[in-house]
Design a protein that fits this description.
- The structure holds two protein chains of two kinds.
- In chain A, 47% of the residues lie in helices and 8% in strands.
- Chain A contains 14 helices and ten strands.
- Chain A has a five-stranded mixed β-sheet with strand order 1-2-8-5-3, covered by helices on one side.
- In chain A, helix 5 (123-139) packs antiparallel against helix 6.
- The radius of gyration of chain A is 21 Å and the shape is globular.
- By secondary structure, chain B is of the alpha+beta class.
- Chain B has a single domain, classed as Alpha-Beta Plaits (2-Layer Sandwich).
- Chain B has a two-stranded antiparallel sheet. Chain B has a two-stranded antiparallel ribbon with strand order 2-3.
- In chain B, a hairpin with a 6-residue loop joins strand 2 and strand 3 (40-42).
- Chain B is globular, with a radius of gyration of 12 Å.
- The chains are: A alpha+beta, B alpha+beta.
- The A-B interface holds A 60-61, 107-108, 110-119, 340-341, 345-353, 355-356, 359 and B 18-22, 24-26, 28, 32-39, 57, 60-61, 63-65.
- The complex binds protoporphyrin IX containing FE and iron/sulfur cluster (SF4).
- Chain A: Belongs to the cytochrome P450 family.
- Chain A: InterPro entries: Cyt_P450, Cyt_P450_B, Cyt_P450_CS, Cyt_P450_sf.
- Chain A: Keywords: Heme, Iron, Metal-binding, Monooxygenase, Oxidoreductase.
Chain lengths: 403, 75
Amino acid sequence: MNDMVCPYLTNGLPKVRERPLDPPAIFGQLRAEEPIAPMTFPDGARGWVVTGYEQARTILADSRFSSKAAQKHLAFASDLATDFDLEKDLPPAQFEHMDPPEHTRYRKLLTAEFTVRRVKTMVPQIERIAAGRVAAMRAKGRSADLVKDFSVPMSAHVICELLGIPEEARARFEELSTQALSLDKKPEETKAVLDGLVGLIGEVAMGKLEQPGDDLLTRLIHGGQLEPAEILGVLLLLLVAGHETSANMLSLGTYTLLREPEQLAKLRADEALVENAVEELLRYLTIVHIGVQRTPTEDVELAGVTLKAGETALIHLPSVNRDPERFPDPDTLDVTRRAAGHLTFSHGIHQCLGQQLARQELRVGFTTLLREFPELRLDADPADIPMRDNMTIYGVHRLPVAW
Amino acid sequence: MTGTMPTTRITADPQVCVGSGMCALTAPDLFDQSDKDGTVLVLQPLPADARIGDAEEAVRGCPSGALRLAEGSAE
Ligand code: HEM
Ligand code: SF4
């Protein structure tokens, strides 16, 4: 061990967390010494890892940085064969990996579906969905796996409501999208599930042609702006971006509250705290733990370093959200702090399109659980709860709870 | 016109806005989003003094840089 040498990341991101709810300690060291530090991706490409809040925000808001898939790299070294070529195998309309004006075209077609006001009108539906999950949990007795029995089906059901997947197709849709989450991402399995989803969405879309509804899919089909293949692509993106994230946030958030009795007590004592608590849990847990990537299209000077054109910067969102210059005492969960300004949903033109829906879903989810189960507790030794260390989205694989 | 009071004016560029809703979440009395394309609508271009703090927070929080505060004048 040599204290003088900065701990460069030479093979992508480390997976080992010393504590399950804190990013690996190496990132704190990097942020203190070099908030924009060189790193080598597992494919051998040289780039940068960004751990400072201000630096991250600056890069994410800078139009000289591109989001194109061709320049993005796997963040974790993986022993799975990865012949999935992000650029070649991407369905159309994956605007998360596009720059303006292509990105703008898709995003503007969708933003009206996700406004603060529109999402508020969905609250009664979301409440009904959460109540339905609680009833299903109660029907099982006095214990359940919160992941399988609450979070994953709740999140899938909300997406169905958003997209306009009818009742009769919902069970199949939920099953396929749940499989998509539980797979350890072997390319051929992923492909089979994706094919199944594409087939199902196609069927549902045909139905909407004949019988329009008041939903996103109907508006896309009848809006006449997108080709059928693009509509499929948009739906897949919303599903991929929205299901796994919200589901993991519901489970990991509950796990965190159950492990922090003082914070939980504050929230139980004052339901109105939930908005703030959701914001703080989003910051503290930063489930997109592989961060986001941006590639400079020209040489960019920033905070004393030169990011050469083509050298991709990985914005490590979990460390950015623990920057003590932005969030005092950052490693402490405090449901009463002002957590607004966190970068959990990223920043810049790609900032999460579904964030208002995610917030609303989390508020309803936590409120419902706490209200309906005043005695909710972990039903396992916390050390035995398997964490999703090597998955794209952080969380817990299982969460046994009892009440 | 009698003595225009210098005051803070909110301006928004809907071309730049990406409809994140952060402004409408931070200060719902000052900002809304269009039903047509989700882009920002400024409800109160000249916010009361007591609301300027939240207006500033909304401008800082805007992910796309669509919002600006300028010294305007009440007409
Ligand atoms: C807690 C839940 C969620 C988290 C933490 C999350 C996180 C993120 C992040 C970090 C990005 C930015 C990627 C980048 O900058 O390159 C993003 C983009 C996106 N998210 Fe979310 N998300 C969540 C829920 C949702 C939901 C519920 C939906 C929709 C149903 C959704 C749809 C999208 C879409 C479409 C994009 C791409 C936006 C663009 O490129 O313009 N997300 N999300
Ligand atoms: S915060 Fe900025 S990008 Fe988001 S809706 Fe308001 S003006 Fe548009």
